[in-house]
């Protein structure tokens, strides 16, 4: 059964919708009938600054599925779509209708919450809203988008034993966007750039992809 997603940012206070913690998101989405289907369009409805973080959060969940090839093939294109929109300067994510009507089940969100709750609790003690210019400046936002496009391409490729690695790396971007933490975004940039250089250009994976386009 499909039901509207809960409002983790508080419908009563519009300003509260500008910031939401990752664990709060998971708790809200995991609460209720495990068979409920959470539509992506409902998850993003009314969000402002955290909309891209919310969509990226949901988009990388398949990367943690223990199914080689399939997980990256689902998450990779979603990450590329999100990154491309940030790259061109969109302020709010857009989804085609066939994606907006789809999304995870509550039971999937519950499993992911249980799997990550311990280290998310530790990490959330370190993150907080700060250096928000790193998140909001058009050039910085475009750079974030570029890294997400490249990481999404790498995630979609059948590179052995990298789904979890890229999933954890992309979670840094998620937390930075949801928690409005520019300092964490700088860390995500550095880690993302290292991953792109190491797995993309040095190994030749991204070069082969680009060659295949021309």
Report a brief summary of the structure.
With 214 residues, this protein is an all-alpha fold. 63% of the residues lie in helices and 0% in strands.
Query: Taking all residues together, what is the mean pLDDT?
Result: 78
**Total helix count?**
11
SSE string, helix = H, strand = E?
A: HHHHHHHHHHH
**Low-confidence regions:** 1-18
Largest sheet: none
Percent helix, as a range, is 55-70%
Task: Give the termini distance in whole angstroms.
Answer: 44 Å
Derived structural class: mainly alpha
User: How many strands appear in the DSSP assignment?
Assistant: 0
How would you describe the shape?
A: globular
- The value of Rg in angstroms is 16 Å
> What percentage of amino acids are in beta strands?
under 5%
Protein name: Exopolysaccharide biosynthesis protein
Pfam family, one: ExoD
Transmembrane segments: 70-88, 134-155, 161-178, 185-207
InterPro entries: ExoD
């Amino acid at each position: 059964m499909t039901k509207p997603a809960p409002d983790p940012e508080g419908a009563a206070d519009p300003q509260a919708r500008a910031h939401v913690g990752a664990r709060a998101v998971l708790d809200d989405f995991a609460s209720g009938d495990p068979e409920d289907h959470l539509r992506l369009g409902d998850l993003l409805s009314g969000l402002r600054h955290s909309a891209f973080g919310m969509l990226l959060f949901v988009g990388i969940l398949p990367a943690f599925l223990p199914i080689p090839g399939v997980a990256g093939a689902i998450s990779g294109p979603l990450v590329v779509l999100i990154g491309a929109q940030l790259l061109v300067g969109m302020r709010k994510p857009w989804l085609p209708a066939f994606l907006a009507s789809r999304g995870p089940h509550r039971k999937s969100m519950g499993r992911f919450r249980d799997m990550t709750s311990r280290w998310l609790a530790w990490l959330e003690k370190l993150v907080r809203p700060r250096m928000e210019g790193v998140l909001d400046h058009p050039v910085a936002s475009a750079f974030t988008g570029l890294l997400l496009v490249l990481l999404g391409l790498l995630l979609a490729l059948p590179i052995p034993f990298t789904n979890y690695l890229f999933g954890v790396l992309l979670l840094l971007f998620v937390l930075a966007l949801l928690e409005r933490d520019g300092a964490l975004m700088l860390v995500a940039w550095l880690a993302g750039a290292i991953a792109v250089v190491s797995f993309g250009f040095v190994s030749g994976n991204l070069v082969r992809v680009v060659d295949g386009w021309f």
